[in-house]
Design brief:
CATH superfamily of the largest domain: Cytochrome-c3 Hydrogenase, chain B
CATH class of the largest domain: Mainly Alpha
Order of helices and strands: EEEHHHHHHEEHEEEEEEEHHHEEEHHHH
Number of strands: 15
Distance between the termini: 34 Å
Number of helices: 14
Shape: globular
Structural class: alpha+beta
Bound molecules: NI-FE active center
Strand order of the largest sheet: 1-2-3
Amino acid sequence: MTRMVIDPITRIEGHLRIDTENQGGEIVDAWSRGEMFRGFEAVLTGRDPFDAPVITQRICGVCPVSHGIASCEALENAFAIEIPENARLQRNLILGANFIASHLTHFYQLSALDFIRIESLLDYRGSNSTLNHLKGWAEQEISSRKILPVAPFLPHLEGDYPKDQKWNIQALEHYLQSLEIRKESHKMAALFGGKMPHTATLVAGGVTSSVQADVVENFRTRLLRVRQFVDDVYLPDVQRAAELFPAYRRMGAGVKSYLSFGVFDENGHDFLPSGFLNEGQLHSLDLSLIREGTRYSRYRDGAPKHPSVGVTEPDPEKEGGYSWLKAPRYGGSACEVGPLARLLIAAHHNVFPLTQQLRRLGWKEAELNSVMGRHLARALETAWIARRMEEWLDRLRGGEATVSSYGPSLSGQGEGLIEAPRGALGHWIHVEKGRIRRYQCIVPSTWNFSPAGEKGDKGPVETALIGTSVARESQGLEAARVVRSFDPCIACAIH
Ligand code: NFE
């Protein structure tokens, strides 16, 4: 038995360490360890509740929109505030643009380098000036220090990269192009959000930006360009990666329990619906079944709690505590959340044509529970949302309200449940005498990267790692590929 430690896991958001025990070149046990505590719940306590959407957006620069909307919804739920249709649509558009930016960044900047042979840069003969610049840099590095690769394609673990030169070069070109497209989607979010990454317009009661025809058309033009890239480049690139790495259509299978809170409110129902999918059976959500435990977390112990009564009391030296993440469970089950969960649940609701899409692409549904399955689900979801965004644009009404008025409220309790790019996100607020008495968040990566639960049951990523073959234990590339397929954000997960 050997111990493998990857610390830090790079090309992710936040501070994650993975420990595994390996036997015969295969992972037989795994520990997911979130490494940095910040304490947003403590920051929020005692403050004006209407500051929460501003403060909670600072949990993360990748998915701030989801935190902002979840926080607004928690306040609206606590104080019975209705929002106008224009606000609902603008929130969908800001969030949709953020989903696109997040998913593109995850594939190209964070994950694709796991599947590209960077040395191919030395044979580049094309006219892309940035790639030629990087090639020159790589040649210098090789002659002086004998090392490759070069920034920004770092760090790069040794392993089984493809020999297909066309793929390697094209993927590097797309890496650079995607930065431009990501910028477009950021600008789209800023058109209604005021600025990005942390928007200025999300408030309890709606969105403070009015609907202007030139802004709508500006958004539409950028959306067209983004859609073209997603359909013609991103989705085919994911397909090609899956062809080049067929073993990863089996590797990294997770817990087979999927959770979604539902997202993109279309006047009472969600475009991507909520649900709990367990062993192929879809159940409607019962939020009272959520508990967060801390048995193996660096927090003071106690029975697992519903987030409406949750507490966050750090205990850095706790015996047995190996992560700063808590351990959320739904009805006692560890759940995978994120694009794969959303698409499977949407397919079970018959609102996403998964079977047709998979047939078109040559996939079997059973292959989705894998590293490549998660990448494919993310790309399919991006295309699906981007298409729907045109309809949300069409439904905006100039001259009509975007925010509702409401009187001051001094007490209440509420929850805001939404999907962030990485999965199910919940904010729970308790207000007393005009101040926040308690605030708790359960965040997508907390579900996915959870440490063991009360009974020692492993979290979703820990489960997905077990059974993974590792060719070079000093590198751990295969484990890193499994981990990155979940798109970790440990800044969010610990908050
Ligand atoms: Ni920091 Fe986030 C998303 C949220 S994370 S990126 O998506 O909420 O797990």
